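User: Let's play a game. I give you a shape written as tokens, and you guess the letters that built it. Ready? Here's round one.
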């Protein structure tokens, strides 16, 4: 068995004595309502309290260590836990200016961060609207698209948003309406009107010709939807270049070029949701670069600050900004904002993080370590549970299923399988929540070869254990 969390010899001082740990668990059961909890924290004793992080690892209240290959929900520690540079930048900014927001004013960290993001963004995306989260960034792009066409056309008829089934875009009402996962939406209906969902490009199981646009059913679905909805009513298409929540789905090479051409032809804005894939995770600053496609807007977050402080952004083409800045615009500026968007302390953390990513060449490292990870995981294809392995950079998915055709994401049977795999990994000292039938392996960009090897070994053992029942 791979060395891991249940090995007593691997335990380290946690900073919590047993009395304090039990008291915290008691308070959690009584008062804490976790986000996205599928069951209550009811004091059964299985709650783990993470007390500290170091590099790619986190430690719980009992001193057990875990390799976090989900990187805190594909968010934190692009550059690893415990970076003194970020802590110092945050401290310095708090002592200099903790918070300020007022019309007609700005502060240096927001200006500097907007400039830094614009320098690494795809060509033409030069305007940066700062937010606190990825959901806020997505919400910003959706509202911006609708107001943009009102300015351009003088009416609100061009307001529909096309999105994809299986995609996750956020939890606020607009972002949730774009989300194509019914179980996340059904309890909160009615949702925001004007959202239409298209089949996802599940190319690993599709038999169409992937070498050319001709015959690609996933593009025909978009074309037919645009025609059916009337392109003069469609404001934007939003998609995540690599569908992580949808199963780490990677479309064929011509897909995004065809989508870009469709948007140009029909005057539709193209939005890339790079909340997960942005800032180096795939071996490029932004995942859209793998296909040489430049969207009109990018929603991003997570990796911009390595999760040290909540931070996100909508990056926008200059020509879109110009419509709002035009003095002849009768609708005024963008009627949208957030109290904490562009918070000076968050911006300081983001600046320090981006400097680390550049200085340590972590984008290039993600490409190299991702290649090693993907190659190593290919050895798992002999395990009966494994249906497919795919990924780009340090964004890799292992699809599993107990039937010959694989599990169906979202079913109770698939959820139970994912839970068993998650628990088997946890026993081996690896955190990788498996909510459906795909293990999304997305470790920090600083992961070492030794840690990659450890992760691969743990995944192999966990899949064999779950598959054989031993």
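Assistant: Ready! My guess for every position:
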């Amino acid at each position: 068995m791979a060395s891991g969390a249940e090995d007593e010899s691997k335990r380290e001082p946690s900073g919590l004595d047993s009395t304090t740990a039990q008291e915290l668990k008691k308070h959690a059961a009584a008062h804490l309502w976790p986000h996205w909890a599928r069951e209550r924290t009811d004091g059964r004793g299985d709650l783990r309290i993470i007390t500290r992080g170091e590099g790619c690892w986190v430690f719980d209240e009992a001193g057990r260590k875990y390799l976090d290959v989900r990187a805190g929900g594909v968010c934190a520690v692009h550059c690893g836990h415990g970076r003194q540079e970020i802590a110092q930048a945050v401290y310095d900014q708090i002592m200099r200016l903790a918070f300020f927001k007022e019309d007609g004013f700005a502060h240096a960290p927001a200006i500097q961060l907007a400039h830094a993001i614009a320098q690494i963004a795809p060509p033409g995306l030069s305007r940066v609207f700062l937010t606190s989260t990825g959901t806020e960034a997505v919400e910003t792009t959706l509202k911006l698209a609708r107001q943009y066409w009102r300015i351009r056309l003088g009416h609100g008829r061009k307001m529909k948003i096309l999105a994809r089934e299986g995609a996750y875009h956020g939890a606020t009402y607009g972002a949730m309406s774009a989300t194509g996962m019914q179980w996340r939406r059904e309890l909160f209906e009615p949702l925001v009107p004007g959202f239409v969902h298209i089949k996802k490009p599940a190319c690993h199981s599709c038999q169409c010709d992937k070498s050319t646009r001709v015959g690609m059913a996933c593009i025909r679905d978009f074309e037919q939807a645009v025609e059916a909805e009337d392109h003069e009513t469609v404001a934007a298409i939003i998609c995540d270049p690599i569908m992580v929540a949808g199963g780490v789905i990677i479309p064929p090479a011509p897909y995004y070029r065809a989508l870009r051409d469709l948007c140009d032809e029909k005057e539709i804005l193209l939005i890339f949701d790079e909340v997960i894939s942005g800032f180096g995770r795939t071996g490029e600053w932004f995942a859209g670069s793998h296909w040489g496609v430049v969207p009109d807007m990018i929603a991003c977050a997570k990796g911009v600050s390595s999760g040290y402080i909540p931070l996100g952004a909508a990056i926008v083409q200059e020509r879109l900004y110009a419509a709002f800045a035009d003095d002849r615009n009768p609708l005024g500026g963008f009627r949208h904002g957030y109290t904490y968007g562009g918070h000076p302390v968050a911006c300081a953390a983001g600046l320090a993080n981006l400097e680390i990513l550049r200085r340590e060449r972590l984008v290039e490292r993600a490409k190299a370590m991702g290649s090693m990870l993907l190659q190593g995981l290919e050895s798992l294809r002999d395990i009966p549970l494994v249906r497919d392995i795919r990924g780009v950079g340090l964004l890799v998915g292992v699809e599993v299923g107990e039937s010959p055709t694989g599990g169906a994401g979202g079913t109770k049977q698939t959820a139970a399988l994912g839970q068993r795999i998650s628990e088997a990994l946890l026993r081996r000292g690896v955190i990788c929540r498996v909510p459906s039938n795909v293990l999304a392996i997305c470790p920090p960009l600083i992961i070492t070869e030794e840690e990659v090897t450890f992760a691969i070994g743990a995944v192999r053992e966990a899949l064999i254990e779950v598959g054989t029942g031993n």
